[in-house]
Fold ComF family protein.
Amino acid sequence: MNILSCLQGAGALPFADELLPFAERVAREALEALSPTRCAGCERAGTLICQDCLTALTLIDPRHSCTRCGAPFGDLLCTECSVEGTSSAMAEALDRCLACAVYAHPLPRIIKAYKDADERRLAPYLAELLYDTALHAQVVAPDRYGGVLSGADAVVFVPATAAAFRRRGFDHMEAIARPFCELSGVPLLDALVKYGHGDQRELGREERRERAQGMYETVEDVRGKRLLLIDDVITTGATMAAASAELKRAGATAVDGLAIARVW
């Protein structure tokens, strides 16, 4: 299974133009004429994610990744989990963790374009990347990631804070979760609320861990469910650990984590 195949032809919109209302098609064509689509990874014209950027992704092999924190090459000795702190918290909270690729070119630009530059057309393609990652892991590493997708009772996404929602105008992981659930056939459960404010991207490991504590609340019934928790980027693991711990506190029997990228 080729994980890059899910993004071939990413310049196309997720739904055929002829299915769109006439007025919307005209508006999109006019917008395209004024501001042509460019690759979110390298600014090449004509496609949302170009072939060169797809090829440049540093994919994480699920046969050798760390099942506790998703880091590459962590099957024997994980350099991330050996750091005292958050990764060990992930191991306690998450049953398994899986990530598609290392957070390196072109993913930082693509994710930033999606989250901060309002390129919402990327959502279905990022969803498909997550979906292909889970399917691929089940096939090539069934002893490690068997049932990570097919065995899930529901998909839960790590939500944005109210402040981030107001700033962006949408919840970036909810927008990915919905097409992901359509692809997988696993129901979506909007189970978490996230409190707090501020961007965590500039915080260190200890600051992230402290801020994540008590940040989440479960607002749906998750008792007895096996959940697949999705997020965009795992940095120290504080977010995944805190969200998973809260879901288990509310009665979830198992929580697996799935992310687009892993900082390493």
